[in-house]
Specification:
about 350 residues, alpha/beta, Aminopeptidase, OB fold (Dihydrolipoamide Acetyltransferase, E2P), 2 domains, nine-stranded mixed sheet, five-stranded mixed sheet, 6 helices, about 20% helix
Length: about 350
């Protein structure tokens, strides 16, 4: 591979509470030309790995392009949790995500050199890049039933940037003061967080989708030259849209109809069916509105740590889909809908 800019690999050595040390590998791509410094971070949680491959591909692309400024990349921010194949350090089987016992890395920024092992790694990354970075793109993953999403603070600059990224769903919320994006935001930097759809996996479609976003981000801030790549239309902001929850009309096995997250669905569009375990009747589930799929499939809060959370057996009233409705449609629907039309056919 011919590189216009030299790619350097460094290692951040972090002393742990036990006296052992862990090394965090990082990439630095410096054009030597003044410009923005983009910090890319992935795998703060050991089961959220799609962003690691996104970073690798973006670095490879950027190294061949005209670049102004530098890229600071941390593909594996939490290598110990990664090697344990768990969200946080020292988790047991099916231990709830929220039961992090102080080891949720994205709630430990800017870290603590005398804290627990996670806070020490956080501190090392912040000390290495936190002041130098002018922008951050923090890559995460959530459950495969939830659409990928850009997370931003409620400020005009962030909204403009989110529109340029061209991603279907944008969630507007406070970045907080203990997350990576939040800490940099409070230092006067620009912090964007992104959630892929799917943990414990690397999905090609998800990687390509996020690679487009990171590339557009780099172009929007002047790091890379070139036109922005076409994105989703429309871009839907959480505080400018309504959402309808489609609930199961009965208990049984929910069989999806193959819809894709982020795609448009029309009113009456078939979402799947529920096969009753009581009377073997099949009940069709259709979209009650026109909109875009933000969540799809049987889903429970523990889906990120337990296979039972992803089991397709549903109870009556369980959510099967969330459909976002643009306000331009004149539709206001802050309520749940039972999406079943009771059509019985041989099972």
């Amino acid at each position: 591979m011919h590189l216009h800019h030299p790619l350097k690999t460094r290692y951040l050595s972090v002393a742990l509470c036990t006296g052992d040390a862990v090394r965090v590998p990082v990439w630095i791509l410096d054009s030597g030309v003044p410009g923005p410094a983009l910090l890319l971070v992935a795998a703060q949680h050991g089961n959220e790995v799609q962003g690691s491959e996104v970073i690798r591909r973006f670095i490879e692309k950027a190294a061949k392009r005209s670049l102004r400024g530098k890229i600071l990349a941390v593909p594996f921010a939490n290598p110990t949790a990664l090697r344990q194949r768990r969200p946080h350090l020292n988790m047991g089987p099916e231990q709830p995500y929220a039961d992090d016992r102080g080891h949720n890395m994205n709630l430990t920024w800017p870290g603590n050199p005398k804290g627990n092992d996670t806070a020490r790694v956080t501190y090392a990354i912040d000390q290495a890049f936190g002041e130098e970075a002018t922008h951050v793109f923090d890559l995460h993953c959530w459950s495969v039933q939830m659409a990928p999403m850009v997370l931003i603070d409620d400020e005009p600059e962030y909204r403009d940037l989110a529109r340029k990224l061209g991603h279907r769903f944008v969630h507007v919320r406070s970045l907080g003061t203990v997350t990576l994006a939040g800490v940099l935001h409070h230092r006067g930097k620009i912090g964007i967080t992104y959630e892929h759809a799917g943990q414990y996996e690397v999905n090609e479609l998800e990687v390509l989708r996020c690679l487009r976003l990171v590339t557009n981000y780099a172009k929007a801030i002047g790091l890379l030259r070139g036109r922005l790549e076409p994105g989703d239309e429309p871009v839907l902001f959480s505080d400018e849209t309504d959402a309808v929850t489609v609930k199961s009309p009965t208990s049984g096995l929910f069989v999806p109809a193959g819809c894709r997250l982020c795609d448009a669905v029309m009113k009456g569009y078939r979402l799947g069916h529920v096969l009753s375990d009581v009377n073997l009747r099949t009940t069709e589930v259709a979209s009650p509105v026109r909109g875009y799929l933000r969540q799809y499939g049987a889903f429970r809060n523990n889906a990120d740590v337990a296979l039972t959370g992803r089991h397709p057996y549903v109870e009556k009233g369980d959510p099967l889909a969330i459909i976002v409705c643009p306000e331009s449609d004149g539709f206001s629907a802050r309520r749940g809908c039972k999406g079943g039309k009771s059509q019985t056919r041989p099972a």
